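hi!! sorry for the late reply, been swamped w classes. u asked for the two structures so here they r. pasted raw, havent cleaned anything up. first the sequence of the first protein and right below it the tokens
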Amino acid sequence: MPMKKWSSWLIILLIASNGWGQSLETTILEHMDNKNVSGLAAIIIQDSNIVWEGYYGLADRNLGKPVDTSTIFMMASISKTITATALMQLHEDGLFELDDAINEYLPFSVTPVSHPDADITFRQLLTHTSSIRDNWSVLIDLYTIGNSPLALGDFLEDYLSPGGDYYSSQSFYGYAPGGNANYSNVGAALCGYLVEAITGQPFNAYCHAQIFEPLCMDNTGWFLSELDTTLIARPYTYIFGTYYDQGLYGYPDYPDGQLRTTARSLAKFLGAYMQNGTLYGTTLLEESTVESMLEVQDADLDAIQGLMWYQWNLGGEPHWGHNGGDDGVSTDMYFNPATRTGYIVLTNGEAFNGPVINAMIDATADDLASATALQLDCNFTTEIPDVLPAVNWGVQPNPASDFTTISCSDCVMESIQVRDLTGKLLLEQNAAQPVQYWQMDVSTWSSGVYIITLFNDKGSSSKLFTKP
């Protein structure tokens, strides 16, 4: 099962240069081809507007479903920034101080094995200095297809309190809390549970009421039961020529990595931070809170770590953000406070996205010329395309070298599109009138796999076609 949720320190591998003079789209498509990334969504934000967005490849390889604006991606460790936001909202309300001991707010005691009398503080959780350790011999076995049946609080008590089923010397590092910095997924999950303990609300419900709904982040949720699963990108691991679908999985420590949303909805969240906490009249956090979160907390322990967000040098300038990685998932979210420019890359593959991030930072006026600025307000929603109800249609012969016929016995076709597996549009044809049969000459097509999509007034449907 998975290696989960990359730490921020691994991001050193992210930095790579894109080819000089290449267009943004060319760099993205080459990256996807070179690194076997199935699908990718990318957004550039300037101030409080999307100034460029691109959608490439396949969200579902089995169905031949392209990535589009409605595609929901798993966020992996970008989730931690949402979790930290929820906790800091409570700090603004005066419900705790950052240097308070967390055990004063919990229904169980978090007890470091080597330092049982030491207090862990909220600040230490938010800066990965709590001494809580990720014991992967435990965590890996708790991954499950679907949502975890184990409640967040029950898992954390078993993991962090003496006598718990998962409590051991491997639950903590040997140093005292505040003595060193080590990335901690479980520590981030505990931030989410503290929201539950302080408010008396389930963490996911709190986030919906206080973050997702105010920002109009549609198609966003912590659990599969909160989402239309047909819109979720299948997570793929590529091994020796084969894409393996990891399934839609979950884990009990969900606040550290299990959020799923669209690129456009995540852009609203990032936009709020870029605008000092308030986006188009909706205040997510006070400006002073955002400033404190985007400030290195203890340079002696970690020179880049703020309150869950971290600072990284990209394109020669400091950016704040977070990356994420899980089985079949690789994500990045950063912004430059000086230029108020933000970058989001979401994929259902496992490659580091350095070439894409750098190409976005280096994007030229020509790259952005065709884009229309989109305001990140509540009038801006994810476009969900209509999907044809189950219809009997096919492409025969398939594979085919010369001609193939698209036929639908119980529907009609008004137009068709053909795309390659990166999502690039190769052919678009419209019928003079609705038809049930459509013959295509494929003799000049290059060998490969293509996505054929039919459209009518009821919606669209896609299938894969192979040219040998």
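now the second protein. again sequence first, tokens right under
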Amino acid sequence: MEEFKKELSQHFDLYKVEVGRFIEEENITLTKDGKRLMYIKAFYGRKPYWKEWIELFHIDPAFFSSELEDKLYGIISKYFRRVFVEYYEDKQTLEELKAGKPPEETRLGSKLKALGYTYLRDWYYPEGWMEGGYKLQAER
């Protein structure tokens, strides 16, 4: 999805973009001012069978609660109906979920809900061994 990468590159540096496991998937290393922010796995969909999704992981803790966080989620919400955000380094969201707060009421969940994502799920225990760490799933 070239439009997504074009808009993303207006605010961030796409340090590395590689083909993923499938032709419709890309792995992106996102940086800003020479500092790595995170890795992105973007699946652009395979119509009519699979819808697009994006996963953000190995996120720099300084990214959370920053202006860059809001900017990135705003861009993502234009192109992806399913989003996965690893929250292990988001200490506030992690503590809120541990305390029993519903995902949509956490710091991270509230941001995603405000962008139109209505279904939120906490993947505290990802299934299998390839799904990565703790993450929130948001869909619309």
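hope this helps!! also noticed smth abt the second:
The longest strand covers residues 35-43.
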